[in-house]
Design a protein that fits this description.
about 120 residues, alpha+beta, six-stranded antiparallel beta sheet, 4 helices, 6 strands
Amino acid sequence: MPAETIRLRTLQQPSHVERLLEAFSARNDILPGDAYRIRDPAALPVSLQRLASKASLDGRVWMCWARAMRTWLFTGEMSLDASRERRATVLHINVYGEDGNLQEAGSWKPHHDGNWQRCAD
């Protein structure tokens, strides 16, 4: 197995993807600065509980943030093919609102300056 494939598979581990998803959500101007993380799936709105459960079953990482009456659910997974192609870690990320509707979806990679860059699909 090529060394690059081994490295990318290591990066696919849920804990690594979770750290990247957290960095994406914190630096992408989607969330207000005082949003807090909800870690307990039972504390999520029912519509988001279903999405978080499905994400977990599908091998994706989920992360939920809230502020006052607003809630955001992020799901993410690393794309091996896109990461290989771009020679950088690429996450496919979905962002849902509290009603469970998809607000944004796309592939993103971290930029060296700490920001995230959207990848052309």
